[in-house]
Amino acid sequence: MNANQILLDSRPEGLPTADNFKQTSVQLPAITKGEFLVKNLWMSVDPYMRGRMIDRESYIAPFQIGQVLEGGSIGEVIESNNPQFPIGTRVSAMHGWRSHYVTDGSEHTRLPNTPMSESHFLGVLGMPGMTAWTGLTRIAALKEGDTLFVSGAAGAVGSVVCQLGKLMGAKVVASVGSDEKAAYLRDLGVDAVINYQTTKDLSAALKQAAPQGIDVYFENVGGEHLTAALNNMNDHGRIAVCGMISQYNDTAPTPGPNNLGMIIIKKLKIEGFIVFEHWDHYPEFAKKMGQWLATGTVKAEQTIYQGLEQAPAAFIGLFEGKNRGKMLVKLD
Amino acid sequence: MNANQILLDSRPEGLPTADNFKQTSVQLPAITKGEFLVKNLWMSVDPYMRGRMIDRESYIAPFQIGQVLEGGSIGEVIESNNPQFPIGTRVSAMHGWRSHYVTDGSEHTRLPNTPMSESHFLGVLGMPGMTAWTGLTRIAALKEGDTLFVSGAAGAVGSVVCQLGKLMGAKVVASVGSDEKAAYLRDLGVDAVINYQTTKDLSAALKQAAPQGIDVYFENVGGEHLTAALNNMNDHGRIAVCGMISQYNDTAPTPGPNNLGMIIIKKLKIEGFIVFEHWDHYPEFAKKMGQWLATGTVKAEQTIYQGLEQAPAAFIGLFEGKNRGKMLVKLD
Lengths: 332, 332
Description:
The structure is a homodimer of 332-residue chains. By secondary structure, the first copy, chain A, is of the alpha/beta class.
């Protein structure tokens, strides 16, 4: 059995290009006792993977040049010597960027039977959805009546943050990068949308969208968005720092906001988080989110690229704003 | 009875100068029923007052041009029609920058009898001491075995933070602006001192002083100090943001640290605070600190300028690093 897979061929400088990736074919070994063969159905591309392409110490080890990339995946067992994972089992794992692989099942999760597409376990029911939930509940402690500002609001995390924010009784102000995304966010029921690409003064636009001020900022973007948020935070506001995608492709460090004094003046709390440290409340989250999805209370948008060879384009597209909701690659 | 007092004559641009202040004399009215006359003995100058000289919204109203400045004061009742404040009572209030004043006693605190100088109620037993205590206990939750980094470490707040840090079982790394201050900090028992004025690479110096990383950063300075701290924080580190004195005299906004991504990578918590919101635990603090002072466990350094007319120089001196411990003005 041959597997197609995508390697990191060189470390990107700035925005990744197709040249940083290399598709290869490898012959898989026959499965031995306890092992099984998985055919991947879906793989995830996520902004955090850009950080793993840099050779540095972080909360997760860097990708190595010449090695297969990793990321969230959903697959089906097509050959098995492991009674825990019989043929036909659907599994989620961190084995994306390849068509097939052999495993003993460690760090594999069996997916429950659900009428929904299993792809949602890479999105709203998976890491991005849990990130939204964790940031709002555990980090920022959003409460009814708060005003919530969300940057990167049309993305896999942001679009769930917006919807959960409304469900939790907040007024939601969203920032996106196109009018088409703005319309999508309005359809999701947010109270105000800013298209930052056509906005000259983001602080002023935010003040206009939320004259009562911001209680919680869900930070996905960094830079100018953080500056604008700081200018518009209310006293004792909370900032849950999930990502700073505007800076992931910087070739030189970007200076931070020039208004950090607001942290003192407004007595703000700013907290970064990594969702994997909060996985203990995944069962609670999955139960709630499963119901919200089933009833249509939460809508799970996806942008789907077709075929493993499209994975680099899908990944690069994350930084070009090409996705609405979760960016996914469907494998053939 | 004539009182001497100092007005804000113009708003400073950059570092304040003597020209921003004006000393005048005013005739005080006779005291009526319920009122008393106070002769000030001590007044406090503090970095936060620079913020009040800017005409902007903040947690405290700006000073107005042509009006007497305000700030912490210790005085003695020398005439009284108020049985709560008989002649000889020592009071603390926010009535600095003047020699005498008439009051009905609202927002005045009677000082307890203590063998120590009453001036400590403007320092280690007052707002700066409480700020140190609040930042370490309520904001940063310093615990035994933590490594604590303190900037502005020779100041009224910083010097107490360092001593409390040692008392709480932390390893303490201090940053100061002169070798003489460094020696003072070493005498106080801190584990390592950096003179940032003679240090080329503050991040590298901090890494050398604390190779095990920083768990808590007590932020008094901002700018390069914050950058260096972010580079050296451990996972789940906490930053208590008390002040950013390096920026108080900026005539244009200074860009922030270019490494805010560390907030995510290291899952940091950064929190600004204003001590007056935490005054509910002042009695607990005062009891502990009173004992520490009495036993010499905490040492209360003071830099004293003599005479009301020296108050502007004392205030300006705060930004020139002229104080060691609490900067005070002793009135004649």
